[in-house]
Amino acid sequence: MSLFRLTLRNLLHRRFLSLLTVCAVAVTVAFIVLLSLSRQSVEQGAKKGYGPFDLVIGAAGSETQLVLNTFYHIGAPTGNIPLAVLDQVEQDQDVDKAFAMTTGDNYKGFPIVGIDSGYFVTRYGDRNLQDGNLYAHTGETIIGSYVAESLGLHIGDTFTGAHGLVQGDSHETAEAEHTEEHGGNHEEDHEEDHAAEAAGDSPDEEHSEEHGEEHAHESFQYTVVGILPALHTPDDRAVFTTVDYAWAVHGLPPEEREITAVLVKPASLLGAHDLKEVLDGSNGVQAAYTSQAVSDVLNAVDQGAQLLSGLTALCVILAAIAILLSLIAAVGERTKDVGLLRLLGKSRAYVWLTLTSEGLLVTATGLIAGLLLGHLGAYLLKDALFAQAGIQIEPYQWTSDHWLIAAGALSIGLLSSLGPAFRMYRMHPLALFKS
Question: Is the dihedral of CA 301, 303, 305, 307 positive or negative?
Fold first, then answer.
């Protein structure tokens, strides 16, 4: 009987224990593969998420928050800045391109971003749209490929936006605040109303302004005129329109018009440094290096990955213990079988190989199953990860980490096999047979 057939027969004889060992190895490998794919996707997505815009200007606050909101459409903006900041940036000779951005509204949870259409050529080059044309007038929009696919939007479709970065946030928050402040205390409400009437103010004036803003959003229609190709960046999950949409929705006069951020493509790194020195910290404005803020995020991700590494190490140890216990059980069951093989003339090396090959076969089976499970998990999680963070995991990607995972798993299987195999190797054939 060949060594492989003998090893396979021995494993099938202990089906349940062999299956548990394979599952332990598979789960460990799948977890490591999924962690590796996620980390690499985060790093790649973060690096290509901001394109050539090495500097971003916005309201004073957290630099990380400013960058994440501007380029990755995550979280809330730090605030607004005067429109005059854009004029100041555009007049700088060290600036190659600068684009104003306005945010704050959404359509079914996808952010509506106002920005000049030249942004797409500057960032992505002269790429053709998937369908339609770039916007040219207020109210016209182009949508990311993920938005079009998720919502089933087509050229010519119309919709209305909502205030806030998440669907329903504004209305629900206003209701909650109103209930918390006034719920159950009608007498105080009536007293405040009478006081307002005595002062000549309408008690419903504040509510009218709030409802007026809601009605302004409901009456402002957007029309889809273009669909972006799959860019594999956070822009796939955003709705883009002209910068002035926010001013049109709120009916702001020219002197009250503000913007959320300015994306700057500097002509040189020295120019970016000089512009940052001029604007950073002046009149509530901050200028942030995009790459530095992204690096801070990646460092935080790395710290989280280090914490998970401890859990990974524990899984590896448990898998090694499972292999070891399986082989120890095999040694106890087959002592007489091994003794008979030795008496029939089989060498010590053959006995040693029968046990180590069991450990390697179990490990290899768990390794293959784990690789498949890890990539399947990446495939199932890719939409959720992209919807939340704009990071697109590649479930079919094969990296150098896979070879390291495979080599590590087989090495652990081999090392776990050596102890029981060496014990059988040293024993005399008669002792094996009589034990």
Answer: negative
